[in-house]
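Reopening this ticket.

The earlier resolution said the output was attached, but the attachment link was broken on my side. Pasting everything inline this time so it's all in one place.
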Amino acid sequence: MADAKPNDLGRLNEVLFEELERLGSVDLENEDAVRLEISRSKAIEGIAKTTVDNARTILEATRIRAEYSREVRMPRMLEG
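Inline output:
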């Protein structure tokens, strides 16, 4: 994987806009291509939603930790 890019919300935003461009450029006469791109878009949407929900959970955990006490030990997955 020579062209590795960071996995963060900025990259997610890039991927979403890249997919939006692909959707806009698909040949509407080619039903298979349309179906394939719609399927791909739905898969990307699901992954994006999960990623954003996860980031929201981490942000909320960070907010709660800051509000109540830095002494509280956060689960490793929420340490972000």
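Reporter confirms the inline version is readable. The chain has a mean pLDDT of 85. The chain is about 70% helix and 0% strand.
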